[in-house]
Design brief:
Elements (H helix, E strand, L loop, with lengths): L23 E10 L2 E11 L4 E5 L6 H7 L8 E6 L2 E2 L7 H5 L2 E4 L11 H12 L4 H14 L15 H14 L4 E5 L7 H16 L4 E4 L3 H7 L2 E6 L2 E6 L1 H6 L4 H9 L2
Parallel strand pairs: 3-8, 3-9, 6-7, 7-8
Antiparallel strand pairs: 1-2, 1-4, 4-5, 9-10
Helix pairs in contact: 3-4, 3-5, 4-5, 5-6
Length: about 260
């Protein structure tokens, strides 16, 4: 059985987390597809300003857990609490709550007939109901944060994979969410393009962005995360600061996984 993660942390960038109340809480979360149980009794919390990385072997339930956090995947049971509001409550407006939750996908999911600016602005216009001019101004600010202001007028096919993913990040942060969920954001990229995306994520972390990141980038997790969660077979096996998980794991399953990745 996994235990709730409620540690106070001091961020890697020297940002101390004062707020004791989590932005995200998963309580007793489970998920099954038919008779196949893919998540069981997941308890996890993420506090303001934290970057929490989730690692583990393929098929361990990492991405399913992440997608349950905004109900892109419908949980079979348990609670998903954002800013004190249970997303599973029938009286909760999921569309309104999703405005508080940014999402960056493995695939970039950009509209090919919109420019980088248009892709980011469209999210603001659809979700926040902003007029075009205001949406485009905020979209340009977001593209500037990810280092792509000069590519604002380019279409996805004119951008590298790394640039397209940075547009995806800009689209997520333009909504000014309370937390951003990253689902293996570098898994579709050529190795030489991974660094630019990870650098943007480092900068967001230093700015105080709250982030939950499913990743296979072990060095990124070691260097940047406040906490690392190791999952296997639909369970949280172990969690703790990076130095514990990577240098002195408490569980043999964690130790074997980390050793294989080095």
């Amino acid at each position: 059985m996994s235990e709730a993660i409620t540690l106070d942390t001091t961020g890697g960038a020297g940002v101390h987390v004062h707020n004791p109340f989590p932005i995200l809480e998963l309580v007793g979360l489970y998920k099954s597809f038919g008779h196949q149980l893919v998540l069981e009794n997941i308890d996890l919390s993420v506090r303001p300003g934290e970057l929490v990385c989730v690692i583990g072997p393929s098929g361990s339930g990492k991405s399913t857990m992440l997608r349950c956090c905004n109900r892109l995947e419908e949980p079979s049971g348990g609670q998903v609490i954002i800013d004190g509001i249970d997303l599973m409550d029938r009286n909760t407006s999921i569309d309104r709550m999703r405005q508080k939750i940014g999402m960056v996908f493995q695939q970039f999911n950009l509209y090919p007939h919109y420019t980088a600016l248009g892709n980011v602005a469209l999210a603001l216009r659809l979700v926040k109901k902003m007029p075009r001019r205001q949406a485009e101004a905020l979209a340009l600010e977001a593209l500037t944060r990810v280092g792509l202001a000069e590519r604002a007028g380019h279409y996805p096919h004119q951008l590298s994979g790394g640039q397209q993913q940075r547009v995806g990040i800009a689209r997520a942060i333009a909504l000014n969410p309370m937390i951003v969920l990253f689902d293996e954001p570098t898994s579709s990229l050529d190795p030489e393009l991974v660094g630019s995306v990870l650098e943007v994520m480092r900068e967001l972390r230093e700015s105080g962005m709250t982030m939950l990141v499913v990743t296979h980038e072990m060095e990124f997790a070691r260097a940047v995360a406040d906490r690392v969660v190791f999952m296997a077979d639909g369970h949280i096996v172990e969690h703790g600061p990076p130095e514990q998980i990577f240098a002195a794991p408490l569980q043999e399953r964690t130790r074997a996984f980390v050793e294989r990745r080095h």
